[in-house]
């Protein structure tokens, strides 16, 4: 006998079945509910999963829902960040609807919206971790689009982030459809591409690219890219004004050719600081995404461009020594770091470790991982080296070998030597490190005045 429903479509203790009747499940606690349906914790086929059960009216109005889900299940998840539909299920007493099971989101993951929340509810991720969040999303959508899918409705509600590691999970994947197919949704207004707002098209892979760029701008800048002077001066954000701002006359907050929708002081001062702190190459992607990309979908920034640019800068973040405002070392523009965008103090970036095209800031306590050094199968956070201070010389730093294998190192103008596990090599501009088949070079930015690199022949500091 099924448990009493208490007004809900499913109740704790209800049994449900896979469509082929080969596996059974039991409904658990309600996790959340929305316009499409409700999500429950459930036991199914010997494991714990999330069960999404649709409202009957939604099944009736979304005529392609069953087809989309069957196709998604057959093709499989693009990668393991997607909490993807795994199996369709039914309930013997609820024949007017159906549901599906998917992976259960761990409790510690929080909505990506909380990156923008006021304290104390805000997720306080460093700039490096925010770039990592963007990289994961770009990588996942590259995989999604490579399977011929489009997501259709990118918005804050689809993404969850781990508050310390920055790892991302992507949910609400039942809107995913084959690119070019009939759309089930238009999207969420502030994330819709202008041509969708104008109802000139329906969601597709190119509109996904626009929505993804909006999400990245929120993550890195904390604001919508089209909300500038026009939105700030509006007494009331009417539907007509929204249609203009995001559809018929969109204009980027930082457009270099038309400042009529530019930032307004003091309201947007912090946005200006964050924008100026980004390297020019990253800013240029946003300028294209919200410049020519606003009205020409074929000119939008693709996932590989975001990935390549962010990979070069993600580990090159450092804080102002005075106010601790975070910056990114712009190796593309040159070695000089200039002034802090927030307090105008002269910046003194730490030495950088150059591995291929990636720069890693070597501030005190910084960790270089095996993955950084090209070990593709290594756990992402497994340490290869850590920056430590010289035990007898305060202010002098070295790179400690935390692996089980020795390194070959060659200081500038010096002799090649070996650094055994647990030993440290002094940081010096031009120092070359070989670990296995991989190489790296220490680069000391010109702005550093306190870097004590020692003489050219000095390689060891313990």
Task: Describe the structure concisely.
The protein is an alpha+beta fold.
Structure characterization notes:
The longest helix has 20 residues, at 127-146. Helix 3 runs antiparallel to helix 5 and helix 3 (127-146) packs antiparallel against helix 11 (303-313). This protein folds into three domains: 15-102, Phosphorylase Kinase, domain 1 (2-Layer Sandwich), CATH 3.30.200; 110-310, Transferase(Phosphotransferase) domain 1 (Transferase(Phosphotransferase), domain 1, Orthogonal Bundle), CATH 1.10.510; 335-443, Tumour Suppressor Smad4 (Sandwich), CATH 2.60.200. It has 462 residues and is an alpha+beta fold. It has helices at 56-61, 65-75, 127-146, 194-197, 205-221, 229-232, 239-248, 269-277, 280-289, 292-295, 303-313, and strands at 15-18, 24-33, 37-44, 47-54, 87-90, 99-102, 110-111, 149-150, 159-161, 168-170, 177-178, 317-319, 326-328, 352-355, 358-361, 367-369, 383-389, 397-401, 407-410, 417-419, 424-426, 432-435, 438-443. The strands form six sheets. The protein has a six-stranded antiparallel barrel with strand order 1-2-3-4-6-5. It has a six-stranded antiparallel sheet with strand order 15-14-23-22-19-20. It is built from eleven helices and 23 strands. Mean pLDDT is 90; it is low at 1-7 and 447-462. A hairpin with a 5-residue loop joins strand 1 and strand 2. 23% of the residues lie in helices and 21% in strands.
């Amino acid at each position: 006998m099924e448990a009493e429903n208490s007004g809900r479509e499913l109740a704790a203790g209800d049994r449900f079945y896979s469509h082929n009747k080969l596996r059974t499940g039991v409904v658990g606690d309600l996790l959340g509910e929305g316009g499409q349906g409700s999500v429950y914790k459930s036991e199914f086929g010997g494991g714990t999963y999330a069960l999404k059960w649709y409202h009957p009216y939604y099944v009736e109005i979304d005529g392609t829902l069953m087809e989309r889900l069957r196709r998604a299940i057959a093709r499989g998840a693009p990668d393991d960040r997607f909490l993807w539909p795994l199996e369709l299920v039914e309930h013997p007493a609820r024949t007017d609807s159906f549901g599906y099971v998917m992976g259960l989101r761990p409790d510690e993951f929080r909505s990506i919206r909380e990156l923008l929340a006021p304290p104390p509810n805000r997720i306080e991720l460093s700039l490096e971790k925010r770039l990592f969040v963007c990289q994961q999303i770009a990588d996942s959508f590259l995989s999604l689009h490579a399977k011929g899918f489009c997501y259709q409705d990118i918005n804050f509600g689809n993404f969850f982030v781990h508050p310390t590691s920055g790892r991302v999970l992507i949910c609400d994947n039942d809107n995913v459809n084959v690119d070019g197919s009939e759309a089930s949704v238009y999207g969420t207004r502030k994330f819709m591409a202008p041509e969708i707002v104008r109802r000139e098209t329906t969601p597709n892979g190119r509109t996904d690219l626009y929505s993804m760029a909006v999400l990245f701008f929120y993550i890195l800048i904390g604001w919508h890219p089209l909300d500038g002077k026009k939105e700030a001066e509006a007494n009331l954000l009417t539907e007509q004004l929204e249609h203009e701002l995001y559809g018929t006359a969109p204009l980027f907050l930082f457009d270099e050719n038309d400042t009529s929708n530019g930032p307004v002081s003091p309201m947007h001062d912090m946005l200006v600081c964050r924008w100026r702190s980004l390297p020019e190459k990253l800013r240029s992607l946003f300028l294209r995404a919200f410049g020519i990309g606003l009205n020409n979908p074929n000119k939008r920034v693709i996932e590989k461009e975001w990935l390549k640019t962010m990979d070069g800068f993600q580990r090159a973040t450092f804080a102002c020594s005075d106010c601790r405002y975070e910056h990114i070392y712009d190796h593309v523009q040159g070695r000089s770091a200039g002034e802090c965008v927030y307090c105008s103090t002269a910046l003194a970036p730490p030495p950088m470790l150059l591995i291929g095209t990636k720069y890693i800031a070597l501030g005190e306590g910084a960790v270089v991982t095996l993955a950084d050094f090209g070990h593709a199968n290594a756990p992402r956070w497994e340490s290869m080296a850590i920056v430590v201070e010289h035990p007898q010389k305060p202010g002098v730093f070295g790179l400690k070998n935390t692996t089980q294998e020795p390194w070959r190192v060659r200081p500038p103008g010096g002799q090649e030597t070996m650094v055994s596990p647990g030993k440290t090599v002094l940081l010096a501009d031009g120092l070359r490190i070989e670990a296995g088949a991989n190489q790296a070079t220490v680069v000391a930015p010109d702005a550093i005045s306190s870097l004590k690199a020692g003489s050219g022949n000095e390689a060891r500091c313990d």
